[in-house]
Amino acid sequence: MFDFHRKSDLVEIQRTRQALSGTQAKLAAISRSMAMIEFAPDGTILDANERFCQAMGYSADELRGKHHRLFCEPGYAQTAEYQQLWRELGQGKAISGTFERLDKAGREVWLEASYMPVLDEQRQVTSVIKVAADISQRVVQEHESESLLKAIGRSMAVIEFTPQGRVIKANQNFLDTMGYRLDEVVGRHHGLFCLPQERESAEYREFWHRSTAASTIRTASNASTSRARWSIWRPRTTRYSTARAACTKW
């Protein structure tokens, strides 16, 4: 009888060891590919893996014992939003998103991250694990593209269309040049700005047919799956007999 219980216990121990080994292997796989850092429930840093340290410019020894606010702007660390972050994590709520943080040199680092509270058997938070990917390069590129489009919008006439040719919006430069108000063009077709013979041509219809099928129009300033930017065609006040419209994208 005792041997039976002993064998049963040994089987259970072996099963537990295998489960633990599997869990450790999975964590190791995540750690090799992602930046990871572990916090106490109050935000004190317990440990960080090599990828996280590389992203933030610290060694693990420099981080242990410091508070998470080390990675934040001093002003942000004093906000109610920041206090709420740690209050919710302490209550066991997982939080994911894109976060702006500062590395050791004070440079911006953008992280796509998930904060995951670790719970004990009593459902109490024992630590918080953060798994993150450094997306700083992507964010910088997006900001540069946004700045470029804003600069274009300030200096050029810009109008945006759906792939079917319907106007989504137009900037003031375009409206002033063409003599329309925004509410007069939104929802109207691009053909509004064309001469009748061009609007009714096979080439014109084929262009918008291809645009609708592909849902992609590439221009000199942007490649978009839902919009197109075009040059100015025919001002509202120009007579058909003298106007010249070129079906050419810029």
Mean pLDDT metric: 78
- Computed Rg: 29 Å
CATH topology type of the largest domain: Beta-Lactamase
Sheet of most strands? 5 strands, antiparallel
Percent helix, as a range, is 40-55%
The count of domains is 3
Tell me, briefly, the overall form: elongated
Can you describe this structure in just a few lines?
The protein has about 250 residues and is α+β, with helices and mostly antiparallel strands.
Structure description:
This protein has 250 residues and is an alpha+beta fold. It folds into 3 domains: 1-32; 34-134, PAS domain (Beta-Lactamase, 2-Layer Sandwich); 140-229, PAS domain (Beta-Lactamase), CATH 3.30.450. It is built from 10 helices and 10 strands. The strands form 3 sheets. Strands 2-1-5-4-3 form a 5-stranded antiparallel beta sheet, with helices on both faces. Strands 7-6-10 form a 3-stranded antiparallel beta sheet. It has a two-stranded antiparallel ribbon with strand order 8-9. A hairpin with a 5-residue loop joins strand 3 (95-102) and strand 4 (108-119). The chain is elongated and about 95 Å long. Residues 216-234 and 237-250 have low confidence and may be disordered.
